[in-house]
Amino acid sequence: MKPLFVCILFALSPLLLLRADEPVPQATVVIELPIQGDRYDASRFTGLSKNERASESEAVWYPLTTKTRFALMLLKTQAVVTEYDISSTRLRIEFAEDKVNEIVPILFPPSFLNIDDFTGQDRVVVLVHGLEGGKLTYRELAPAFEAHGWFPLQMVYPNDGGIKEPAKFLQGELERLHRRYPQTRWAIVAHSLGGLVAWEALASAKSTPVTDLVTLGTPFAGSSMARFQSDLELADVAVRLMAFDLGAIDTLADGSGEAIELLKPDSQQRRDLLKRSLPPVVRLHLVAGSGGPIKKDEIVKFSGLIERVIERLNPSEQFAAHLRVLASASEVVEGVGDGAVTVRSATAIDHHYSQRVFSRSHTGLLKVNQDNDEVLEWILAQLRKVDAAGSKR
């Protein structure tokens, strides 16, 4: 078996050819979205995120309206879109890679994936994913909630932009659905960044039908890993490197966008958000993971490994700084963090109804199987307490 540092060197080598003073060339992206009738499938935009390859994506249908066509025309006029073509069977769009964040909100706006299946069920849990998440985030928890009598309403949204628009959507839809189904009980389960989306939605509402907000690994105090983008969330780069997953190096790039800024430890925007209280009817349940990939007695070894990589390859100062952040991040230490968020950050809200720490990784908080459903069972137990207290169902 090759030493770990050899694998890291091999994985880093293409990127290290780019020096700090050289511009990074922008790739051209061409996406073809299938059209059926007057709808288009936007799942390819989810496929742009590293966590969900297009082959794994299920269709996400949106209406192809006059407004959509007009928006595409404006995007081309503004040179955001290079070319586009609409036929009876597909929508073809060509654009520079750095323009994706301007296009996604137009063609992939916030939505509830399975809203057509909701017919006024008694109990609904709204599932909100986090950074680099999507419709596959809750592929295990969603059916598990349904099996326990909770209809899982899955929300998707452009996951590397700001939280304002998805929060506005969530707030508005909850109000609309509550007016139509006043007897339904509502809860929200939100992973990582999704917890801040839910907080913004609830704190902005004059009133809400939501009785419970459960956050899974939400970085209320930020995360030093915010600059890393991974296959599902902020980062679990260390565990993937140590497992010889060379694809992990794809995450070692500058974090960009409003979501990244919000998650940094010194974000004033996040601090201002959390100064706004949740409605008193909402019970907050905090879940944190402590299953970081680096054992405490391996910290020095791991840091030394990173330093040897830097010394041998002499990368740009910016890239070396990123590696050193990873080497010194408490988020990746077992018992301290989950690989992306520390326990302290995930439980940084003093006024909460309940909290629990599980020996899980950041993405492991979302896992459910026959032998390990402790997170699910704990959440259900908290919701049952509210039922027993006589809250609206």
**Radius of gyration over all CA atoms, rounded:** 22 Å
How much of the sequence is in beta strands? 15-25%
**What is the helix/strand order?**
HEEHEHEEHEEHEHEHEHHHEHHHEH
* Major beta-sheet overview: 7 strands, mixed
Cross-sheet strand order for the largest sheet: 6-8-7-9-10-11-12
Secondary structural class: alpha/beta
Q: What is the tally of beta strands?
A: 12
In the CATH hierarchy, what is the architecture of the largest domain at level 2?
A: 3-Layer(aba) Sandwich
- What is the 3D form? globular
As residue ranges, the low-confidence spans are 1-21, 49-56, 230-237, 240-256
Output the CATH topology of the largest domain. Rossmann fold
The CATH class of the largest domain turns out to be Alpha Beta
Count of domains: 2
Instruction: Give the averaged pLDDT, no decimals.
Output: 82
Pfam family, one: Abhydrolase_1
Keywords: Hydrolase, Signal
Domain AB hydrolase-1: 124-223
GO molecular function, one term: hydrolase activity
